[in-house]
Design brief:
By secondary structure, the protein is of the alpha+beta class. The protein is built from three helices and four strands; from the N terminus they run E-E-E-H-E-H-H. The protein has one domain (15-78): Ribosomal Protein S5, domain 2 (2-Layer Sandwich), CATH 3.30.230.10.
């Protein structure tokens, strides 16, 4: 099981991911916005604990590919703290 870091109830920055012919785009939203996403992507984001996000799926909307692309995007996301530690900066 993988864990993801969140900035409060949203993601840190806009992110894109691709799996098969599905391309997803997610960006942080203001507090209280909720999850603005399609069915398959919404389910993954709810289970991940994301509460405020704007998301869109381009290309194929096959649920399996959309779920895989969403998980891939969440795994690739890094917090600013982990990036600065990796690069050795403050």
């Amino acid at each position: 099981m993988d864990s993801i870091e969140l900035k409060g109830n949203t993601i840190y920055y806009p992110i894109k991911a691709k799996h098969g012919a599905s391309i997803i785009f997610m960006k942080p939203a203001a507090p209280g916005t909720g999850i603005i996403a399609g069915g398959a992507m919404r389910a993954v984001l709810e289970l991940a604990g994301v509460q405020d996000v704007l998301a869109k799926c381009y290309g194929s909307t096959t649920p399996v590919n959309v779920v895989q692309a969403t998980i891939k995007a969440l795994k690739e996301m890094e917090s600013p703290k982990s990036v600065s530690e990796r690069k050795g900066k403050k």
